[in-house]
Amino acid sequence: MSESARVPCPHCGGRVPVPRGHSRAKIRCGDCGYYAPVPENLRSEAADEADDLPVIAPDAVEPPRRRSRNDDDDDVPRPPPVPRSKPKKPAAKATARENPNPRDLRPEFVIPDGADLGPDLLEGNQVEHDDQAIPYRVPGDGTMACRECNFKLPLGSAFCVNCGLDFATKKKPKKRFQPIDREWEPRMNLTVRLQIFAGLQVLNVLVIVLLRENVSVVGALLALFFQGGLQAFLIGSFEKIAVHRTEKGVATMTKTWRFCFIPMTPAEIDWRKSHAIGVIHTHSLGFLEWLTFFYLLLLFVVPGIVFYFLVINPMRYQIVLCDIYGSVDEVIFRTTSDDQPEEICRVASTATGLTYRGTM
Q1: What is the pLDDT of residues 220-247, one digit of tens each?
Q2: Is residue 200 located within the same domain as residue 317?
Q3: CA–CA gap between residue 335 and residue 332 (Å, rounded)
Q4: What's the start-to-end Cα distance of the chain, in Å?
């Protein structure tokens, strides 16, 4: 095959010369870089000519002469001097900042310029269509992943701030939570209610004593029993909510009803099915409030009026559990106190992890 053998480039239309000894199916065009196919006859001719090339014995090749310091031959090109590597500066340390996601309490690490990025994340060789291997690499980003929770940490971290894994001992510390044991009762606590009930019993006895001449003994006892039972039902029937959390982080919410001052079996509130806890303002009243009002109004006019302004007229608050869209799942507590709703919601949110929505 002569040196003038050329193949057409299918991309630019140029003529690509085929050198002696070329046996590949394609050859790169020097003008556009596209690969032009080489016919089989040209490849076979190139292979035959490569076999006919003279073989030079290794002894016939003169070894390269080493240059000495006294050599003044300026015609021989000298290699450029290799620059000395400068001493590395100490790598800048990563800084932690607050996570932009308000629900994610984990810090966010910022890797500054000049920090040690660590080993390459990926490296290898990519084979092109001309059977040439082109190396590639993906540089590191200056972070390392926790082997337990896969949280991204700066290089050289001693422990994981997310799961607490110690990289040296490969152990996680035991989490201990602040215990919580809180209870709330609407309006008045049990002690105040018992004092009011005792005062009403004294009043009942005084009324019976004043009317002893007009009422028989049996009638007086029946009246005293009826008034005492009705007052015990109206004053001693109320609900109580409790929030508990152990040192291991186990949180529970329970609601207990008292009927005539007698506590019923506590009912556990299933807060895990909800997403948030919030407060609703309302003027709606329950059956007990209206029954108490009419009882006091018919029996004693003045106490009924006082009860209206102290209990019925004020704004009422309902503490509710709601889903992620804000729809109410369950009403867990009712009160007229202005301070109790926010306090209950914040304590419950801390113990259970529910989102506190505030006033809804």
Answers
A1: 888 888 888 888 887 888 899 999 999 9
A2: yes
A3: 11
A4: 90
Number of domains in the chain: 3
Are 146 and 225 in a shared domain?
Answer: no
Could you give the CA distance from residue 288 to residue 236 in angstroms, rounded to a whole number?
A: 11
Q: Is the dihedral of CA 257, 262, 264, 266 positive or negative?
A: positive
Judge if 188 and 306 occupy the same domain: yes
Residues 318 and 343 in one domain: yes
Alpha helices by DSSP H, 7-81:
40-52
In one letter, which amino acid is 356? Y
> Does the residue 118 lie in any domain?
no
In a 3-state reduction of DSSP, which class is residue 88?
A: coil
Residue 332 burial by Cβ neighbours in a 10 Å radius (0-12, 13-18, 19+): buried
Instruction: Reduce the DSSP state of residue 359 to 3 states and report it.
Output: strand
Q: Please list the residues that pair with 108 across neighbouring strands.
A: 97
For residues 48, 54, 58, 62, the Cα torsion angle rounded to the nearest 10 degrees is -130
- Based on the fold, state whether residues 150 and 274 are members of the same structural domain: no
Q: What is the rounded CA–CA span in Å between residue 27 and residue 39?
A: 11
Which domain, by its residues, includes 228?
A: 180-359
The two structure tokens encoding residue 268: 């556990």
Over the stretch 47-66, which tens digit does the pLDDT of each residue have? 555 555 455 554 554 555 55
Structure tokens given for 150: 């896969």
Predicted TM-score (pTM) of the model is 0.51
| Pair (153, 222) in one structural domain | no
Residue 270 forms part of a structural domain? yes
Burial class (CB within 10 angstroms; exposed 0-12, middle 13-18, buried 19+) of 208 = middle
